[in-house]
Amino acid sequence: MRTRSVVAVLVALAAVLLVPPAVGGLTGGGDGTQLRGLRFLVPNAPGGGYDITARTAAKAMEDAGLTGAVEVFNLPGAGGTVGLGRTVNESGNDRLVMSMGLGVVGSVYTNDSPATLTDTTPIARLTQETEIVVVGKDSPLRTFDDLLATWKADPGAVPVGGGSSPGGPDHLAPMLMAEGVGIDPRAVNYVSYDGGGELLAAVLGGKVAFGVSGLSEYADQIEAGELRVLAVTAAQRVPGVDAPTLKEAGVNVEFANWRGIVAPPGLSDEGRAELVAAFTALRESPEWKEALERNGWQDAFLPGDDFAAFLHSENDRVAGVLRNLGLVA
Question: Which residues lie below 8 Å from residue 110, measured CB to CB, with a gap of 6+?
Answer without folding.
Answer: 79, 165, 166, 167, 322, 327, 328
